[in-house]
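Hi,

I'm pasting everything inline rather than attaching a file, because the server keeps stripping attachments. The sequence lines come first, and each chain or strand is labelled.
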Amino acid sequence: MPHGLAFDIAHLLAGGLVLMSFLLLYQVRLYAMLNIFALHALVLALSVAWQALVQGAPHLYITALIALVFKAITIPVALHRIIQRLGIHREIETVVGIGPTMLVGMGLVALAMVVMLPVTANADALAREDLAFALSVVLLGLLVMVTRRNAVSQVVGFMSLENGLVLAATGAKGMPLVVEISVAFSILIAFIVIGIFLFRIRERFDTVDLQALDRFRGERR
Amino acid sequence: MALAAVLATMLGQLAVALLAIGLAGRGAWAGSVLYAASAAAGAIATLAALASLLAAPAPPETLILPFGLPWLGAHLRLDALAAFFLAVVNFGGAIAALYGIGYGAHEPSPRRVLPFFAAFLAAMNLVVLADDAFTFLLAWECMSLLSWALVMAHHHSAANRAAGHVYLTMAGFGTLALLLAFGLLAGPAGDYGFAAIRSAPLTPWLGGGALLLAVLGTGSKAGLVPLHVWLPLAHPAAPSHVSALMSGVMTKVALYGLIRILFDLLGPPPGWASMVLLAAGGATAVLGVLQALMQSELKRLLAYSTIENIGVICVGLGLAIAFQANGMTAASALAMTAALCHIANHALFKSLLFLGAGAVLTATGERDLERLGGLIHRMPQTSFLFLIGAVAIAALPPLNGFVSEWLTFQAVLLSPVLPHWGLKIMVPAVGGLLALATALAAACFVKAFGIAFLGRARSAAAATAQEVEPTRLVAMALLALACLLIGLLPGYVIDGLAPVTRDLLGAVMPAQPAAPWQPIVPVVASRSSYSGLLVFLFIGVSASLAALVIHRVASHAVRRAPAWDCGYPEPSPLAQYSAGSFAQPLRRVFGTSIFRAREQVTMPLPGDLRPARFALQMRDLVWEGLYLPLAAAIGYAAERLNALQFLTIRRYLGMVFLALVTLLLVLALWPSF
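And the predicted assembly:
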């Protein structure tokens, strides 16, 4: 099936987002992880901008701008400063080894393809691929959250999950701007809340390793 | 007209309940006035319901009240079936309230009884009148919860609290089953009005599911084995007039639900349903009466006997389904009439017996038969009335118990004509179980009356008992009179039930002769007939003649002499025949297998002065085999799931993740999405 250049580039950018998610998955240093996350958001911004161009929907440029300003610049910088101020240990303890995590990640991408492609058989090719990639990014983001012990890396996982949602939202034609903006702002607010929590946790327990919290929850573990 | 009258009396009961909240503690007069008002309301409702039943075949009265679900309202309907059950409910309620006038003076906490009592009566009326599933379930749940509150009236005893717990659990289960049954009945359109349910037939599978759920739901309230476990705990725990109401009336409301769903809402029930009811009924009758025989506590014994009678009624209903499914409408009308007749009769004599047990409890403070005895000298009127109830429930002619059980057996005897081979074998077997249960019930009530009222007093309380107040005696006497009248003139009852069977089955029993002395004819006169009046006259004349001859030939004088003591003069009344010793032969025959009864006698060594010891061990296999494992399984699962409350944040995230992936996998692997 021949596709035009528009499809190829959209495909490339969405695939790049999945690749960035995989990169996130095997980072063991916090700063590196933040840099990859910034790259993740940058690819998202590019992808959204390309969609805006292809679909001829100027409001998507705003979405791309939000992604660029907030996610690729503001949030990583803020997280950098948080890490510096808190003096957080920069190595991330993972729960499962990197190798198995990567294998699970591949399985998840395969699952996303298998689920999405038959469901969207009637949609146009661009939206199909976009949705499948978006679901992969969401699942990989969840995987990052599940396999990390450090609170900051969980925040990053959550943010990358949200990037997947935005990708899905922009891939489908006719998604109103209001939805995208509200999603973006809710993420921002979630980031602020989580950031405040990070400071509080740190203040109280002297660490942001979530395992330390478990001792204080209820009468047993 | 009748519907409006019944509604007015229900409002009256609610007003009594509200007033009782404020007034019940103010003194004995307030309680008396309120109970009297409740009794009057019950009496008016009884008359209205009877008038409506006799006025049939008038079209059913309907009414839509503007409360309940906003788009549905509360639909009410008074047809012949509802009128019959309203009469049963309200007569029982009126008598219990009349009895309550005397009882209330002894109640330590009237506020815990009187408000719930009146509201309970109103709720039972509403169950019978309901014409949509929502109103029905609402009233049903009100009935359950209010009776639970009454069971918990004397909540200081731990046994009562345990009984309340079991009752609440079983009531919740029953309502859940009914909720699901109505969900199936309403179908995908979800119209919960009974009229819509009636007109929309279900597929056999859905209908079968609804039928089984309805049997479970109503059976758990009525006390079908194995859902009966709460009944012998909860009924005795309540105050006695409430016990009478729960045992005599509330179980009948449950059966009303069963009849309404099976015969009315589901359309003609499928033939296999009869097997379910016959098997459950037969097992319930025998197990109930055997348990009753083993009891030494009077109210518990009565509660188990209720289970037996529910079994008898269910066999009647099962027979009605079996005959109807095979096109034998006349026989099916006979079986249905027998079941309805037994419903009314059991409500009468079980209420009478519970009220009698309540009188004994007030007079002596004892529930245990082993501490009663000789009450016939101290409480002659109560004894006589209790005896009438015992004779009636033992199904002896000429009282009413005989009539309905005889009709049931007439229906059983028609079974060889059934074409279905399974039923051909099953019905006689169930008939055998029924005969066994009837005979054992007679033995059970010989024990109950003999041990409690005859012989010598086994405790100081029994020796100094005083007769109860006249109002209570009047209440019991009215029930005894009703028992006698139905026994003597059963033809009128059968004719009165004709509209009900015509509505439900489209058939009626043959019209009974108008003259009271002519015998009733269940099928044809050449087959069998029975005249209660003639039997009564014969018994009366022959007994009087015998008494006359004995007094003429033997002696005029009444002599009092010590009872013959087998040449072993033992002064203690404990050496008398006891409840346990009366039941011992039957326990050895049946109890060894059914209750795993084990007797152990420990004899002292020769020369040792210790008394010999006798230990008896019995087990309730239904409780141990079904409920304890179930409770253990639930406890185990809860214990395991409890750990989920204490997971780490990462584990919770992991669970969300796993759930998502599992759902996606299902979606991916589902063959035909």
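Chain A touches chain B at residues 95, 108, 111-112, 114-115, 118-119, 139, 142-143, 145-146, 148-149, 154, 210-211, 213-214, 217-221 (CB under 8 Å).

If the labels don't parse on your end, tell me and I'll reformat.
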